[in-house]
Amino acid sequence: MKLIADDLKGDILKRVSSIQRYMKEDGMDALLIAGNANIYYTTSRFFRGYVYIPAEGSPIWFVVKPVGFEEEKDVVYIHKPENIPAELERLGLRMPSNIGFEYDSLLYSDVVRLQAVFPSATPKNGSHPIKKARMVKTPWELDRMKEDGIHQSEAYRRVTHCYREDMTDVEFQIEIERILRLEGNLGFIRTSGNLMEINMGSVIAGDNADVPSPYDFSMGGAGVDPALPGGANGTTMKPGETVMVDMSGSFNGYQTDMTRVWRIGEIPEKAYKAHECSRSILRACEKMGRPGVRVADLYDKAIAIAKAEGFDQYFMGHRQKAPFIGHGIGIELNELPVVTAKSRDVLEEGMTIALEPKFVIPSVGAVGVENTYVVTAEGLKPLTVFPEEIQEL
Amino acid sequence: MKLIADDLKGDILKRVSSIQRYMKEDGMDALLIAGNANIYYTTSRFFRGYVYIPAEGSPIWFVVKPVGFEEEKDVVYIHKPENIPAELERLGLRMPSNIGFEYDSLLYSDVVRLQAVFPSATPKNGSHPIKKARMVKTPWELDRMKEDGIHQSEAYRRVTHCYREDMTDVEFQIEIERILRLEGNLGFIRTSGNLMEINMGSVIAGDNADVPSPYDFSMGGAGVDPALPGGANGTTMKPGETVMVDMSGSFNGYQTDMTRVWRIGEIPEKAYKAHECSRSILRACEKMGRPGVRVADLYDKAIAIAKAEGFDQYFMGHRQKAPFIGHGIGIELNELPVVTAKSRDVLEEGMTIALEPKFVIPSVGAVGVENTYVVTAEGLKPLTVFPEEIQEL
User: Fold this and answer.
1) In this complex, which of A46, A194, A212 lies closest to B229 when CB atoms are compared?
2) Which residues of B touch A113 (CB under 8 A)?
3) What is the mean pLDDT of residues A277-298?
4) Which residue spans within chain B are E strands per DSSP?
């Protein structure tokens, strides 16, 4: 259920205030946003242009295109970023003595151009306060992610019906994509940085799970073409193998991340046990995951459980291991915090993280569960509610 | 038909030589590549890491991950870019006095980090020589794009079968996506820069064509969610309207771009005439488009024809106009040259460009044809061969 427009406006104010709080910590005078995800975060709209956030007071939207924002408050149409200083002056705003730019989400040439627009201001890393703010979701954002979880589960309910005997993993994935799209999935996964390229998600059957990834995904897979080496590789799904389904939960500007495992015929006992180990890790993290807990402690706990149960050689990959067991998620698939041994982040109420303790069992396939959670005073609460057991196709 | 491995190696050498020729023009001593598209271009493989191209001699692949490249020639595994100078020294290569980085495809923070790896070298814009080289395709690259055109046409042949009465534009698009995927489409469109976000393409029915885009696409459309404002918006397709199909031609590391128009029931004569005007523009450009011709001349020709036929108010959009009629295409959807009035590029044999003279007719929809072409001595030769007339659904 969408909140009404006024609630959304109030929600956006919360996000901007949060950014301004972190700007203050960094001694930042102003912030000029141009990245797609951050424009959406600070406006819940989408345009090509810039959002100028002063240390105090309302942001100004400098819109290049499209037409159609003329009636909005605090909107100024410009042709190019070089027009911004004159417009600030016209609005009676003082020039910032320093200004932040999105070092971690804009191209080098774009940041250099923007820095030249404010030649007398000291440039700063503006990605920092925005990333920190975006870690903790507002009520409106959490509502969107709850919607995502419901739609994603609704689509996963029909995954079994997508299967026909002797199908390839790609054919299976295509039918799941169709069901997700008919459920309202946008068909596009917004990611941060250059380290992820993916279509609508990943379906990995059998030993393809053991093909290492060049990307920062938890699992690999060869893909069907060397140009996009990830996920399904076009082989026929066989009895005795698992099929891991980790498909997109992007149904609005936000998303959930959920992985479930199906099997074809009988699979070895070891695969079931590793799968149960993944569930034990999730249960332990759900209980531990309260505000104030170090993110790195979740990682260490997961490693300890995998080791205690004798599955550490298969944990987070076999030929190559991913160095994390989860990640923040929201507008982008990969947000802060990253759940690694080295994380310095501490859980806060309203953070959303996907946890994905997974195992690659050679000659069987990948097992394990991924859920997206919100951090609450009582621990991690799942947004992806769907049976976790390995199901038969 | 894929060339054999040795031919591919020779083809990659051609690409590297072309980059080195442009490096020489820019007085560039070395080039360090890290962007996904450029790693694929210079290796026809994909890994996370860096391709170091000296002004003369063979490139070195510095691979971070995945495992599996150990046996290749000139491959060095590293943990992080800071390891590169020591490895160059170990290989007996002299330190570059200046070095290029991909200013136009890497994040600001990534370029700053790489610049610090070579503190004594003058940093340069390395995007320039690569973009220039990538404009002109090699034989192997052209073969991939020919494959794309064949697959895309094969899928478009089945578009009519995707339609059912009272379908929404999104439902129609989903069935086309499925057919494209079953035909081998990778389901992912690689784009350059931050100005494009898209799923598998665009289906625009009726007046949705007149909703302006924040992105650098030729056409707009509201999309189904403000978070991804482009293309189909979920309305039911109605008699008297056109449906423009501009879906992905990404079947390997390369792609073609092709637009065709369908109609529901009868549409006004004006729409047919504007569609024929688009075809006239393409015929004129095909004839003109020989090596040595200015790209801007193609743009001017298109504008002149649209004006002469009295359709200029609808050309390249109605409420908002796109300032181009085409674009280079290859590994990325948007490559050089951009076919604008301001282009300084000149056509060369082997360049590939998509031309998309389109019209938005209010209360009818979008019309026009898009083809992907290769520049030959005889003019532009289409890679997307498919009937151009408006077809009935």
Assistant:
1) A46
2) none
3) 98
4) 30-33, 48-54, 60-65, 75-77, 98-101, 122-125, 201-205, 241-249, 256-257, 260-264, 324-328, 335-340, 352-355, 358-361, 365-368, 371-376, 379-382, 391-392
Give the integer Cα–Cα distance in Å for A244 and A259.
Answer: 7
pLDDT higher than threshold 70 for residue B225: yes
pTM score: 0.97
Please say if the pLDDT value at position B4 is more than 70. Answer: no
Instruction: Tell me, yes or no, if A26 comes closer than 8 A to chain B by beta carbon.
Output: no
Contacts with B90 (C-beta within 8 Å, 6 or more apart), sequence order? none
* Per-residue pLDDT tens over the stretch A122-171: 999 999 999 999 999 999 999 999 999 999 999 999 999 999 999 999 99
Q: Which amino acid is at B249?
A: G
Please give the structure tokens belonging to residue A53: 């956030």
Cross-strand bridge partners of residue A353: A328, A373
Neighbouring CB atoms inside 10 A of A70's CB total 8
Cis peptide before A337 (omega within 30 of 0): yes
Beta strand A379-382 pairing with A371-376: antiparallel
Helix or strand holding residue A304 (H, E): helix A295-308
- Is B2 at the interface with chain A, CB within 8 A? no
> A154 CB near a chain B CB, below 8 Å?
no
* Whole-number Å distance between alpha carbons of B172 and B362: 22
B:68-107 residues touching chain A, CB 8 A cutoff = 68, 101-107
Supply the DSSP symbol for A81: G
Count of CB atoms situated within 10 Å of the CB of A106: 25
Q: Which whole number is the average pLDDT over A305-319? A: 97
Residue A276: φ, ψ to 5° = -65, -30
CA distance A211 to B65: 12
Contact status of A174 with chain B (Cβ, < 8 Å): yes
| Tens of pLDDT, residues B135-166 | 999 999 999 999 999 999 999 999 999 999 99
For residue B97, the one-letter residue type is S
Instruction: Give Dmax over CA atoms of chain A in angstroms.
Output: 72
Minimum CA–CA partner of A212 in chain B: B66
Note the pLDDT tens digit of each residue in B58-116.
Answer: 999 999 999 888 888 889 999 999 999 999 999 999 999 999 999 999 999 999 999 99
Put simply, whether A127 touches B (Cβ < 8 Å) is yes
Amino acid at A124: K
**Res A1: pLDDT:** 39
What is the structure's pLDDT at B6? 77
- Give A212's contacts in chain B (Cβ within 8 Å): 65-68
Is A187–B199 a contact, with Cβ atoms under 8 angstroms apart?
A: yes
Q: Which of B40, B228, B320 sits opposite A65 (nearest CB)?
A: B320
The values of phi and psi at residue A43, to 5°, are: -135, -15
Q: How far apart are CA B284 and CA B280, in angstroms?
A: 6
CB distance A138 to A42 below 8 Å? no
Q: Which residues pair with A243 in a beta bridge?
A: A205, A262
Instruction: Determine the Cα–Cα distance for residues A189 and A198; give it in Å rounded to an integer.
Output: 7
The candidate with the shortest Cα–Cα distance to B99, out of B44, B50, B133, is B50
Could A109 and B101 be called an inter-chain contact, meaning their C-beta atoms sit closer than 8 Å? no
B15 and B59 Cβ atoms separated by less than 8 Å? no
